[in-house]
Amino acid sequence: MRVLVTVGSTDFDPLVLTVIWQPVLVNLIARGYDKVIIQCGNSAVDFGRPVESGLSFRKDGMDIEVWKFKPTLQEEYSRADLVISHAGSGTILDVLRLGKPLIVIPNPTLLDNHQEELANALSALGHLKASTILDLPETISDLHTSSLTPFPAPDESNFQALLDEEMGFM
Q1: Assembly and interactions (predicted)?
Q2: What is the CATH number of domain 2-166?
Q3: Which helix (H) or strand (E) holds 93?
Q4: Domain map of the chain by residue range?
Q5: pTM of the predicted model over 0.90
Q6: CA 110 to CA 12: how far, in whole Å?
Q7: d(CA 17, CA 54)
């Protein structure tokens, strides 16, 4: 099974380093995962070789693939059995709309830690699990994907009604 880790377009080195930390890998393996794919963005983590065009290695029994950016993450989201991500709203919506289990770790260095509010709200609704860097091994261990609440489909009728009203069609 595949785990996709994404940090978005910024750098979030603590998350990148945490997902290759032995306690995290042990808990992923215990849950049946055998491959971790890391989109590291502008990370400064030194993997010993450049990661622009992709890098693969094995650590603590886990196959790991690292790359900086791809034109789109949609295919990676679709192929993943679990996504671990920063708490960016675009990433969260893309993953939840696909019905994928999601663990988010807010990046506290961004805009007054705005990601934490979104992560906690969606976690309270049961759509995802919010975690911290230090709690990630336990969050993985305790994750019961069947207990996550499916994210509702978007209701585009509100937008259409608003547009019709603004254009004078109502």
Answers
A1: Heterodimer with ALG14 to form a functional enzyme.
A2: 3.40.50.2000
A3: helix 89-97
A4: 2-166
A5: no
A6: 10
A7: 17
